[in-house]
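Figure 3 (text version): structure tokens given as input.
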């Protein structure tokens, strides 16, 4: 009975969110306060229905109700309770329900805040509700999470995908969906501004606030996904340029561009058209990413579904949402942004160049992601675009972005700062590169210089503006410095070996020795595993530094195998080991590596998130009301 209640509540949310917004928009156009205010109870009602509907699905997981198809396909009686809750977003239907719930939560939180333009807020909420209603339609008619398996109810479920049975995957998808929901809110805000046909300062404050929070969630989601890939998948890397990874990374790039574009608009009034356009394009790319993840056109460990019919329905829904918005932009953008913009200063030029660079980077990643798909769909064969393509342009663009950011820090009024920063950054680069042995001296020099230049210019900014430092900006940019150092360290100085190992066998690597001592059997409720004990010894004294415990896991419910890496995280380097396939009764294919500064990659992401949070709180305290 509980699943039927959840299904009924989902239908109620769908009908409410698709019918009421028409009255709200009509009231806003006719300046009828009565109809304009309808969005408030509607938002509360839709959120409540969706929340209760999601809780009904969680209850079905918690009670092992395998008569519900979604539960039977993605749970098991032996699944740990925390994963039974997380199984809600373990595949297509439940993750879509979670995404819709989060969109309604964003709309409700924004609606409950202070605002001084009821017409703008009514239009924003109406657009949000229509999008929520459209997604509910898609869910009810193509992807019902409450569909029953009657009368043939299985005794046992198939189990949750083993790659999702990890703490990182409990948090990673909800963070991304929060970011995607923020992109939806930014889209609705841009459409509402276009519908109003005039530019007000509160519109800008609202859009900056939405975008800053969205950027924080997308940064956290992408960073946690990268961490999960590094620690759980066992391949030894932290970013594969997988199409599904790119589907979340491209919106992050566009959101970063949008945030800087909005800041420039707030400072000078420039880039208004671009800010509104990026607000629309960001959500469009989010929908494109959802199509890639859920249509089955790519094979990936991150993909949620493989049903072309659902993909076609999602594509049609995306067109219905996006086409009117872009037509509205074409008709109203000039009217909304009709004020004359002054000639950009040198500082403005650098900001505009930075925004342009981010947009170009996003476009290049998008082309590399879609080109193989288009090539295959046209019947031209199979084509793979891998890491060499993406690294060939993204690494130089990152260095160029660091150069621009450093130049913005210095400005054009302090020639001495430029001289000091240039000398110190070049000196640091020469010192590091000359005393180490990188794989590629050119790329290592570029990476070290970019981080050194940004570090020195950030110090100059702090010293020059002592007492009036924008600590949000400084912390976020410092995070980029730390991540750049981590990426350069891993990519240029990693030592790795892929070899046959078993008890008693060892391998020297740099200044340490990896020794395989024994293989242990490990058993849990969900899986059984072969666990290697690999000691890391000092190369000179043979003193024990640490013990790595990689596992080769076999999940009980479905027989799937996973490799869980054994990692010793350190401030200066990580020791890493992962088990591959067995080569004999006692020996395995083992990957061992030393990864200098690997943890700095995610430490930098944490600093970026903190910086974004500081900037958001500061702006909220300074900005007062929003629309």
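Below: residues designed for each position.
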């Amino acid at each position: 009975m509980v699943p039927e209640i959840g299904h009924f509540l989902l239908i109620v949310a769908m009908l409410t969110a698709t019918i009421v917004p028409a009255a709200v928009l009509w009231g806003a156009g006719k300046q009828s306060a009565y109809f304009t205010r309808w969005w408030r109870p509607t938002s509360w009602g839709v959120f409540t229905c969706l929340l209760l509907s999601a809780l009904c699905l969680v209850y079905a997981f918690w009670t092992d109700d395998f008569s519900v198809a979604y539960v039977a396909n993605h749970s098991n009686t032996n699944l740990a309770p925390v994963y039974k809750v997380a199984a809600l977003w373990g595949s297509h239907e439940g993750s879509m329900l979670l995404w819709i719930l989060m969109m309604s939560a964003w709309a409700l939180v924004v609606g409950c805040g202070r605002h001084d333009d009821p017409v703008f807020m009514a239009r924003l909420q109406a657009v949000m509700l229509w999008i929520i209603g459209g997604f509910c339609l898609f869910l009810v008619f193509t992807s019902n999470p409450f569909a029953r398996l009657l009368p043939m109810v299985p005794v046992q479920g198939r189990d949750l995908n083993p790659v999702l049975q990890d703490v990182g995957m409990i948090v990673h998808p909800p963070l991304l969906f929060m970011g995607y929901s923020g992109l939806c809110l930014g889209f609705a805000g841009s459409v509402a501004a276009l519908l109003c046909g005039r530019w007000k300062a509160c519109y800008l404050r609202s859009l900056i606030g939405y975008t800053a929070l969205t950027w924080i969630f997308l940064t956290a989601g992408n960073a946690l996904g990268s961490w999960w890939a590094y620690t759980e998948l066992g391949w030894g890397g932290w970013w594969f340029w997988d199409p599904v990874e790119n589907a979340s990374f491209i919106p992050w790039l566009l959101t970063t561009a949008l945030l800087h574009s909005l800041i420039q608009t707030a400072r000078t009034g420039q880039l208004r058209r671009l800010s509104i356009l990026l607000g629309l394009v960001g959500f469009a790319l989010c929908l494109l990413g959802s199509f890639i993840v859920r249509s089955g056109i790519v094979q990936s460990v991150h993909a949620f579904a493989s049903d072309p019919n659902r993909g076609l329905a999602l594509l049609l829904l995306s067109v219905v949402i996006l086409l009117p918005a872009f037509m509205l932009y074409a008709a109203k953008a000039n009217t909304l942004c009709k004020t004359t913009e002054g000639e950009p200063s040198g500082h403005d030029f650098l900001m505009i160049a930075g925004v342009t660079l981010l947009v170009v980077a996003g476009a290049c990643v998008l082309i590399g992601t879609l080109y193989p798909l288009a090539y295959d769909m046209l019947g031209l064969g199979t084509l793979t675009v891998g890491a060499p393509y993406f690294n060939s342009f993204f690494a130089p663009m990152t260095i160029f972005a660091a150069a621009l950011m450093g130049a913005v820090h210095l400005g054009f009024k302090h020639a001495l700062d430029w001289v000091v920063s240039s000398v110190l950054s070049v000196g640091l680069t020469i010192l590091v590169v000359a005393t180490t042995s990188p794989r590629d001296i050119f790329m290592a020099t570029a990476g070290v210089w970019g981080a050194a230049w940004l570090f020195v210019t950030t110090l100059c900014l702090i010293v020059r503006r002592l007492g009036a430092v924008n600590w949000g900006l400084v912390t976020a940019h410092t995070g980029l410095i730390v991540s750049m150092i981590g990426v350069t360290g891993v990519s240029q100085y990693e030592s790795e070996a892929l070899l046959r190992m078993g008890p008693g066998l060892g391998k020297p690597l740099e200044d340490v020795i990896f020794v395989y001592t024994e293989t242990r059997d490990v058993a849990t409720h969900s899986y059984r595993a072969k666990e290697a004990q690999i000691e890391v010894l000092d190369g000179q004294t043979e003193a024990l530094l640490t013990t790595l415990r990689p596992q080769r896991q076999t999940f009980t419910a479905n027989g799937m195998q996973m490799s869980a890496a054994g990692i010793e995280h350190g401030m200066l380097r990580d020791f890493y080991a992962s088990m591959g396939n067995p080569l004999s009764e006692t020996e395995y294919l083992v990957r061992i590596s030393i990864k200098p500064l690997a943890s700095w990659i995610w430490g930098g992401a944490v600093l970026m998130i903190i910086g974004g949070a500081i900037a958001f709180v500061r702006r909220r305290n300074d900005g007062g009301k929003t629309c």
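The chain has a mean pLDDT of 91.
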